[in-house]
Design goal:
single chain, 211 residues, 4-stranded antiparallel β-sheet, two-stranded antiparallel ribbon, 7 helices, binds zinc ion
C-alpha cells in the first residue's frame, strides 16, 4: 500500500473513487481522520454498498451500509459506515469547492459595488483602504488601484508608493495608477529625493538638484 496521488479505483465495483472532505471537527481533538480528505466510492451500484444495507440489517438490525474508502496517505482500503443514501455526499470536495467559489464570487461582487460607490463619492481614503487591505481579493484591489489612478488625487501617491504589493498584478496596477496621477497633475517624482515635483521643473525644490 502506498500514497495515492490520484483517485483510486474501487476494488468492489471498478469505478473511480471521489475525493471526500473529512469532517472539520475531528481535526482539533487529534482523533479520527488523518488528512483533509479521503477517497470514497460514491457509486450507488457498488456491490459493497448495495449488499451493505442487507448485511447491516441482518446482523445488527440497523438501516445502514458501507461505502468503500481509501486513505490517500497509505492507500489502505476500508469501509466507511453510512446511514442514508445521501449521507456523506454533501462533502464531496468538488461540491465544497463549488460552494467556496460561489461565496468568493459574491464577496467580490459586493466589494466591487462598494468600490463604485466610493468612486462616485470621490472617497479616496476609502479606496486606499481597500487597496492596502491584504485580505481583499486581488481583482478588488486592482480595481481600487485603477480608480485611484482615474481620480488623480496626489495625496494617495505617498501611501501606495512605498507599499510592497506581493501580487505582481496589483503592483503593476498601482504603478500605472501612480503614472496616471502624475499625468493628471502635471507632476513627476524627483529621481534624487523621490519628492513630488512639477513635471517641467528644471531644479527640484526639495533637494535643489538639477534635473
Ligand atoms: Zn465501489
Ligand atoms: Zn529632489
Amino acid at each position: 500500500m502506498k500514497k495515492q496521488t490520484k483517485p483510486p479505483i474501487c476494488p468492489h465495483c471498478g469505478k473511480e473513487m471521489q475525493k471526500w472532505a473529512t469532517p472539520q471537527f475531528n481535526f482539533s481533538d487529534g482523533l479520527g481522520w488523518g488528512g483533509p480528505f479521503l477517497y470514497v466510492c460514491f457509486n450507488d451500484e457498488c456491490p459493497l454498498y448495495v449488499e451493505g444495507w442487507e448485511s447491516m440489517m441482518e446482523h445488527y438490525g440497523q438501516v445502514a451500509s458501507y461505502r468503500c474508502m481509501c486513505d490517500p496517505d497509505t492507500g489502505t482500503i476500508e469501509c466507511l459506515p453510512v446511514l442514508a443514501p445521501n449521507a456523506l455526499k454533501g462533502d464531496i470536495i468538488d461540491e465544497v469547492k463549488k460552494a467556496e467559489e460561489k461565496a468568493r464570487k459574491e464577496a467580490e461582487k459586493k466589494a466591487l459595488e462598494n468600490l463604485r460607490g466610493y468612486r462616485e463619492l470621490k472617497d479616496v481614503n476609502a479606496i486606499l483602504k481597500v487597496l492596502l487591505n491584504k485580505k481583499e481579493l486581488a481583482l478588488v484591489r486592482k480595481t481600487a488601484a485603477n480608480y485611484l489612478g482615474k481620480l488623480g488625487d496626489l495625496k494617495c501617491i505617498e501611501p501606495i508608493h512605498n507599499h510592497v504589493f506581493k501580487d505582481p498584478d496589483i503592483q503593476e496596477s498601482v504603478e500605472h495608477a501612480i503614472e496616471l496621477i502624475h499625468e493628471t497633475n502635471f507632476t513627476k517624482e524627483c529621481p534624487y529625493c523621490a519628492e513630488i515635483i512639477k513635471a517641467r521643473a528644471k531644479v527640484c525644490k526639495h533637494c535643489n538638484r538639477e534635473l
